[in-house]
Design goal:
Radius of gyration: 30 Å
Largest sheet: 6 strands, mixed
Order of helices and strands: HEEHEHEEEEHEEEH
Oligomer: single chain
Strand content: 25-35%
Helix content: 25-40%
Number of domains: 1
Number of helices: 5
CATH architecture: 3-Layer(aba) Sandwich
Mean pLDDT: 77
Low-confidence stretches: 1-23, 129-133
Length: 225
């Protein structure tokens, strides 16, 4: 009984972890210019996310929100260069002219659909016989019409059947996003990261998850507060 209960708990935990992991962005690799000494970034221009105008706006707004929460002024690129495909060098020149310290550019570089394994969940199968058992064999005229009421030991016997329900797991999307940080004064790339965003909806729904993961990584690498 304890082994069966432990197996059930383990499978439920695995399913929970799968759901949690499917709603997050994870930085899988990053790079930093070893020669870059860094400087205080007080103002940043953010260029972000999917190629669609709506997706770009959502990602840039979420990135700006995260930077502002850390005391950094952030300007979405759609407010400066509203074209659908802004030129990076043009953005850096525009940012430098406006005394912006850095430009952060995020773009989707890959997408794949994942078909997860379908996990089945164990349960204790009910017995085929009804709660009220058939009449007992006659023991005389007084007992001919009486049945027998099942007790606790009948409902929970030592060998209760053990079964597994059919498993089900829906496919999800994994979007790989490359994020680059350019120093406007040096005019060069100083930091880059590759992240995976997992979702069962559109990539736009995970703009907040992405922005949070990227700014936390920048802070860990001591590029922002």
């Amino acid at each position: 009984m304890q082994k069966k209960t432990g197996a059930l708990c383990s499978m439920m935990l695995i399913a929970l972890l799968m759901l949690v992991s499917c709603a997050a962005t994870k930085v899988v690799s990053d790079w930093k210019d070893s020669a870059y000494t860094g400087r205080n970034i007080r103002k940043v221009l953010v260029v972000g996310g999917p190629a669609t105008p709506q997706g770009r706006k959502l990602f840039e707004d979420e990135l700006a929100k995260q930077f502002k929460s850390r005391g950094i002024e952030a300007v979405p690129s759609y407010a400066v260069l509203p074209s659908e495909k802004p030129d990076i060098q043009a953005l850096i020149a525009k940012a430098k002219a406006q005394n912006i310290d850095a430009v952060l550019v995020a773009r989707t570089v890959g997408q794949k659909t994942v078909e997860p394994l379908a996990y089945s969940y164990p349960y204790y199968a009910p017995y085929a016989f009804p709660y009220y058992s058939p009449p007992a064999p006659p023991m005389g005229p007084a007992y001919a019409s009486q049945g027998t009421i099942r007790g606790f030991e009948d409902d929970y016997p030592p060998g209760q059947p053990y079964a597994a329900s059919p498993g089900y797991a829906s496919p999800y999307q994994v979007f790989s996003i490359e994020t680059n940080l350019y120093d406007t004064r040096a005019g060069k790339l100083v930091w880059s990261a590759l992240s995976d965003t997992t979702t069962r909806e559109s990539i736009d729904s995970e703009a907040g998850s992405f922005a949070s993961a990227i700014t936390k990584k920048l802070a860990k690498d001591k590029l922002i507060p």
